[in-house]
Amino acid sequence: MLRSGRSFISHYKIARQLYSTISRFSHVETLRDGSADTFRQQAFAPAKPALLPRDHFRELSALKKWFEPSPNILTACQLNASYLSSYGETLVPLELTRDNPSNSTDDVSSFEQLHAPLSFFIEWTRHHQRSASASTPPTAPAGRLYLAQARVSDLPSPLGADLPTPALVTLAGKGDVYDTNVWIGLAPTYTPLHRDPNPNLFVQLAGRKTVRLFTPDVGADVFRRVQARIGAAGGGGGSASMRGAEMMQGAERRVLEAEVWGSGEWEEGRAGAGLEAHLEAGDGLFIPKGWWHSIKGVGEGVTGSVNWWFRALDTKRKQALTRATACVAGLLTLGAHSAATRLRDCASIAAMSQPNSKNPEQSEAASNDEPHT
Ligand SMILES: O=C(O)CCC(=O)C(=O)O
């Protein structure tokens, strides 16, 4: 059967868009095991995005205690209100996004950040999940809430204890965590393209997310092009490492989203520059410092994640560790006397690699970490 010319063209456009979206993003590779050595050698040291083996973080307490299966929607989760309500008075940061009426070009009319008790957010998700699964048509939602960038250090300590720092984080970097944040919402959720000034271990606690990543240079190009485009229309000017209101609404949101999730132009001559990862509860993704990423909560029900922004070893410490390793290896080939002398050398080199070393070489160790928002 022949289609009308217009309908054929629109089908062709959709097919082309789908094809280009599918083919432009390669899958993030999965590490062969979750050991600290493999993580360090194949992801952390070469600054390469990588997925930990599926379910690696399945045992995290938060994953088991904060969420439970939805009784109404197969495969969806909900918040475990009976556990979390004990901390209902805790103030948490929320993002409120309001949808625009359908006759507007922007799909989001306003974006606000506020603080409200956790109990309010629990009630909001419960209400929305109930009306989404009810057979009666739901009333138009007044807006969407996203519990975004809630610092674990600001949560009551039992909740913080449900998110112990993974060994990979303490073993691979300087051993300290810059910041840990949780992100909980009802799918769909959306975080625009940005980059983090520290390495990021991103772990999915509930529901599903899709992450798209760009190399530092391609991401910077995409961001610049979007800024230029909306700058011409009088908008933009935000920072890519700040979760600012400008990237969550209006022209910047629309153009950024189209560039990353639609038929953006970044791919020309840039094979392999865009990566994609699909995360489910228990999965973990390493996002190296400076890699650009945009994240969508997909599917149905509650989606929850936690990220650990941790510090990379500074160059001096990296060099000292390499020298110390070589020094110890050399010991094995020496006689007792020379070995004792060599051992003293090794000890002083190893001291240099300690984070709080008083060695003058270390005073320069203050990292190039920038603040997160
Ligand atoms: O999960 C999200 O929506 C955002 C997380 C994020 O931006 C990050 O980990 O850098």
Briefly, what is this?
Helix content is 35%, strand content 26%. The chain is an alpha+beta fold and 373 residues long. The chain folds into two domains: 294 residues, Jelly Rolls, CATH 2.60.120; 49 residues.
Q: Return residue spans where pLDDT drops below 50 for at least 5 consecutive residues.
A: 1-6, 355-369
Mean pLDDT: 80
| SSE pattern | HEHEHEEHEEHEHHEEEEHHEEEEHHH
Distinct small molecules: 2-oxoglutaric acid
The CATH first-level class of the largest domain comes to Mainly Beta
By CATH, the topology of the largest domain is Jelly Rolls
What does the radius of gyration come to? 24 Å
Number of helices: 12
Count of spatially separate domains: 2
What structural class do the secondary elements suggest?
Answer: alpha+beta
CATH superfamily of the largest domain: Cupin
How would the global form be characterised? globular
How is the secondary structure organized here?
Blueprint: H1 5-24, E1 25-27, H2 36-44, E2 50-51, H3 61-65, E3 67-69, E4 77-79, H4 81-84, E5 91-99, E6 108-117, H5 118-133, E7 144-151, H6 157-161, H7 167-172, E8 177-186, E9 189-195, E10 200-206, E11 208-214, H8 216-232, H9 250-261, E12 274-280, E13 284-287, E14 292-298, E15 302-310, H10 315-331, H11 336-352, H12 360-363
Parallel strand pairs: 1-12
Antiparallel strand pairs: 2-13, 3-4, 5-6, 5-7, 7-8, 8-15, 9-14, 10-13, 10-15, 11-12, 11-14
The structure holds 2-oxoglutaric acid (AKG).
